Amino acid sequence: MFSDGLFRIEWLLEQGGEILWFILIASFFMWMLIIERYYFLFVLHPIRMQQLIAMWQQRTEHRSWYAHRIREGMIAEISSHLRQFLLLIKALTATLPMLGLLGTVIGMIQVFDSMSVSGAGNTRGFAGGISVALITTMAGLVTALSGLYFSANLDHQVKRAIEQAMDLLR
Amino acid sequence: MFWWVLSTFGVTLFLLGTPVSSWGIGSPETLDQLLEQVRQDSVQEQRLNADREANFLAARDKQKELLRKANADLQAEEQRSKVLKGTFEKNEKVLAEKQTELKDLSGSLGELFSVARQTAHDLLPTVSNSLVLAEFPDRVAVLSTIAESNKLPNIEDLQRLWLSLQEQMTESGKIETFSASVITVGGEVKKQQVSRVGTFTAISEGKYLRYLSEPVAGLVELNRQPASRFLKAAAEFEKAGSGAIVSMAIDPSRGAILSLLVQSPSLRERIDQGGWIGYFTIALGVVALLIALQRFIYLFTIGRRIDAQRHEEIPNEDNPLGRVLSVYTGNKEEDIEALNLKLDEAILKEMPQLERGLPTLAILADVAPLLGLLGTVTGMIKTFQAITMFGTSDPKLMSAGISEALVTTVIGLMVAIPILLIHSALSGKSNRLIQILDEESAAIVAWLAEKKQGLLEKREADVF
Questions:
Q1: Residue B442's closest CA among A102, A119, A68?
Q2: What is the pLDDT of residues B342-354, one digit of tens each?
Q3: Is B315 helix (H, G, I), strand (E, B) or coil?
Q4: Are the C-beta atoms of residues B285 and B415 closer than 8 Å to each other?
Q5: Residue ranges of domains in chain B
Q6: Looking at per-residue confidence, does B399 or B434 come out higher?
Q7: What is the pLDDT of residue B226?
Q8: Is the dihedral of CA B118, B120, B123, B124 positive or negative?
């Protein structure tokens, strides 16, 4: 049962051509980044926040120019850590449909190659190219759509976390 | 002179003047004689006329006789023709009867012959393009004689046709290993052990073969082999003994898919199909990669120096953060407002270096797919020109334009995608550095100032 499923994946990868591998790698990379971001946001970030708040509250005064600059520096550091990789995730979600499109065009090239070799009558020859075109398009769109929600959600969460940090450091 | 002419004239006159007697032997001398002569003549004439008349009459009688004879002949012939006509009609009737009899008798057989010929015709291409022919090369001749002869096939031909069909069926269900000459990729002809799976696939020494019927009938090694999974299966298949169960790939199109594999062009040919737009896009990609490389090295080294600087108190002039901080260390006694302005100015001076090249990369990432689109359109223009000139009947004539259209799109995307990713990574890095300069430098300055004043004793380095 399990090996059968594996075979099907292998079959799918073969039908999709080389581009499907790139889509697979890109989407894997994107998912690793998304998971890392959630881990950072919900596990590492609160610990850091607590340390920074403790440090902030050690200060005797919070109103001087120095205090403001230090607070801004802290918030900038927090936000720069929170925003890390978000741009890359967004770029990957934009790239995945493009990779799918690349696969579409490569599949169409295969179709027209078989057409130029054996004429328009050989529909068997078309099938390989069409499967490449459709499978890669589908894979590109599915992976991009799955990433799109999480990249938007991460954006939102990060914004909220930064606002929260601003409120807490007062 | 004159005398000579006159004398010749005289001689001629003399010659002409010679007397010639013009009438019969005895010319009448008197009238009586003449009368007598006329009388005699008329008697003679009457005799001659009588003779002539007699001759005519005799001839007339003869003709009459002939006419009678001819009439008799005609009648006889007419009689005969009547008789013959009768027989002809009788025979025709008999012939029609016989024909209907023949039709009745051979009714189903006539169809059988046309079916036999049709079957031979249909079987001929199947057999002549089949891998089985590599093993039994002399089967085509039998079929082509049946398919092409005008005579009705006799029972022997029919049996041979039936045998060929049966043979083809049986062989297509067999897995055979036999020795045959194989044309290798290098062009050599080698005697090799060939394994054949039905009429679908033939392999030899772990490589897939295809059968060519023209120009020289024989097995040819594919110069582009299918995916490694199939090659592994082929190698295992050849090693397997009889009775073993191994998985094996077959070409259900009986060689059509494998022969398409050979004709797919190489990478170099593909890029050439893109035309000058393709080359231009690739050149842009190379430029973008060079810019990205330079930016990556720069941002990476600067980033490391800035990180080092954040844990140092003495500003180092080799990095932007150090240069910003040195503004503070050089003007320690200034008041806060002036210091703030000076810091801003120093930061603004550092920013362009960190951002340089990134907008170019962004533009290149946008331009590359647009160039691909341009190539698509020029390719389609070529295609439609070909259609205007040659019509749509032959797709091969349109293929140059279509491949240009598609290949340029591919090149555009292939250039744009990596640039897009590299650009986002680099701009993430540069944004971070700018933020450090912009906001954290002020914080560090504030921290240093407070430390100097003794307000804050200790800074937890691991947090910052």
A1: A68
A2: 888 888 888 888 8
A3: coil
A4: yes
A5: 38-170, 174-261, 267-456
A6: B434
A7: 77
A8: negative
Nearest CA-CA partner of A113 in A103, A100, A126, A127 = A126
- The pTM of the full predicted model, rounded to 2 decimals, is 0.63
Interface of B with A in 329-348 (CB under 8 A): 336, 340
Task: Please name the member of A88, A94, A101 whose beta carbon is closest to the beta carbon of B425.
Answer: A88
Q: Is B189 helix (H, G, I), strand (E, B) or coil?
A: strand
Specify the amino acid at residue B244: A
In whole angstroms, what is the distance from residue A84 CA to residue B337 CA?
32
Any residues with CB less than 8 A from the CB of B136 and at least 6 apart, and which? B167
Are B133 and B140 a contacting pair, CB within 8 Å? yes
**Pick from B408, B176, B148, B442: which is nearest to B275 by CA?**
B408
**Distance, CA of B434 to CA of B441 (rounded, Å):** 10
Q: What is the ipTM of this complex?
A: 0.82
Outline where B129-255 has alpha helix (H): 139-148, 155-172, 228-239
**Region of B318 on the Ramachandran plot (φ > 0 left; ψ -120 to 50 alpha; else beta):** alpha
CA distance A95 to A88: 10
CB-CB under 8 Å, A125 with B446: no
Amino acid in position B198? G
Question: What is the distance between the terminal CA atoms of chain A, rounded to a whole angstrom?
Answer: 59
Our measurement of the distance from residue B445's CA atom to the centroid of its chain's CA atoms, rounded to an integer in Å, reads 75
- Give CA–CA dist B321/B441, Å, rounded: 7
Contact call for A112 and B399, based on CB within 8 A: yes
- Residue in the structure block whose two tokens are 């973008």: B288
| Residue B395: pLDDT over 80 | no
CB A125 within 8 A of CB A159: no
For residue range A86-120, what is the model confidence (pLDDT) as tens digits? 989 999 999 999 999 999 988 888 888 777 766 66
Q: What is the pLDDT of residue B50?
A: 93
CA distance B216 to B429: 63
Q: How many domains does chain A have?
A: 1
Asked which of A43-47, B182-186, B226-230, B451-455 is least confident by mean pLDDT, the reply is B451-455
Any A CB within 8 A of B139 CB: no
Question: Is B410–A52 a contact, with Cβ atoms under 8 angstroms apart?
Answer: no
pLDDT in tens, B416-426: 999 999 999 99
Asked if B176 reaches chain A (Cβ–Cβ under 8 Å), the answer is no
Range of the domain at A70: 17-169
User: For residue B294, which amino acid is it?
Assistant: Q
